[in-house]
Request: fold
Amino acid sequence: MSISLDEVRHVANLARLQLSETELLSFQGQLNSLLGHFEDIQNLDVSGVAPKPHAVAMQNVFARDIAHQPLPREEALRNSADTKAGLFIVPTIIEE
Amino acid sequence: MPEYVVSVGMEVHAELMTESKMFCRCPVGFGGMPNTRTCPICLGLPGTLPVPNEAAVEMVIKTALALNCTVPTDSVFHRKNYYYPDLPKGFQVSQYGETNPIGYNGFLEIPAADGGTKRIKIRRVHLEEDTGKLMHLPGGGSGVDYNRAGVPLMEIVTDFPPDIESPDEAKEYMSQLRAILIYLGVCDGKLEQGSMRCEPNISVRLKGSETYGTKTELKNLNSFKSVQLGIEYELKRQSEVLEAGGTITQETRGWNEQTLSSYLMRVKESEADYRYFVCPDLIPMNFSEEKIEAIRATLPELPLAKLLRFENDFGLSNYDAGVLVSEQYWADYFEKCVELGADPKQACNWMNGDFARMLNEAGQVGLVDGEGIEDKPASQIRPQHLVELIGMIESGAITGKIAKSVFETCFATGKLPSTVVEEEGLTVISDTSAIDALVAEVIAGNPGQVLQYREGKESLIGFFVGQVMRKSEGRADPQSVQAALRDALK
Ligand SMILES: [Zn+2]
Reply:
């Protein structure tokens, strides 16, 4: 199992990362070495092991439906690069 | 032009009526100032730990059971990854897989054109979280309000191949589904406010063809009427494109309420790559048989079943029964009237007729008990008012005409009909001598008509009855009046 340079480019694009050709090559190498570890795991005999849906061996952790005080708006907006009229401001979205 | 048929797959999103959000305890609400219902969890800040809302999970189980779905023993949440400013975390928590959603392989029944019912197969009912709201600002930039981000959202998807084969069936599906969600108390079903949203996938093919055409997705349908009109429009548009030798492209289109037409929003160039994976922050859910059965035991009678029962048990028309079951409180009101002894047909006529009109004009709702629903106060007319009124008409104590004015007084004052009748002296004049006196007056006052009647123009009896009734101010019993008149005119 290995990852092509195009796949790295695709994944980077999905993650909205702008990578140079050098960076792409470097990540391709790192990812392939990671995939190599998975290949080792895949070669193990796990025929007697039941599949697990989750890494944590717990079930049914829920919260009761009771509303709490939310953040004051100034707090909520504090880390935003730009705000206006109580809104988070982002670059124009041309859709819908 | 050869005949084209339409196939519709329905994707419906319903906001759940919980107090708090899906994975944090921010309050859920509509409107209000932007970004006043957020916290580090629903803003997607690093280092936060989401915990699922148990009430939301139970609401989805309830819906799944009402829609005849299988509820799995084990179910997990996944992350659906994509970037968009209305999604603060960069992923939406949702449920992936065929048998992982809280409900799968179910069906919903809609009334069929032939009078029976038709099954619409449901592929999945799953739980996810809503996104924030984006708004374009004059002068550039977009503003984001995260009040809605993280609100529990249930998605209900029909199965493929689609069972919905006409715009009417699509509207009926939506209307049945909405009624069920409201009956279950899981969603308020407000299409115009967006708490229930539907996105049909629409394709057409030549009648008789086995292959389904390319589908388009339609958005911005804010009412049942637009669901129907939008699908009708797409059927026509797609048929014309194909007939002209063109091809349908897989695209998302928007519905324009003003021009009653659809417009291109975006072309789907490739399947989105969401890279679903099990959310490591959320612990797997396990539903015991006891839990599922306990929830099943809380299911109310569903609207279509109620409608059929009203038709069969009370001999109501499909239309009347449909109006009664359209709101659960209205159906409850009707059943209370019947339980208290009212004739079902009379109760239905009053409810769907004068009472409904007056409620509408006054901006009120008719409730068995309670103060009101949302901004509408409850009418002072309770089932016992209606039952008493109907009883008084049946026993002949008041005429139907008087009953209407009594009802209006009751509506305005909250008094019982018997009180109003007594206070205003509106009981039927059954005293024969009183009626005879009125008859004599009318005969004396209309010599010309009396002559014509005696010469054989018997149809004039209606005229005489009308005159006597007017003199009695509607209080005389029309049948006694007619009998007295026929006697006197011999
Ligand atoms: Zn929150």
Remarks:
- The first strand of chain A starts at residue 83 and ends at 84.
- Chain A has a mean pLDDT of 91.
- The interface with chain B takes residues 10, 14, 16, 53-56, 58-68, 70-71, 73, 76-77, 79, 82, 84-93, 95-96 of chain A (CB under 8 Å).
- The two ends of chain A are 40 Å apart (CA to CA).
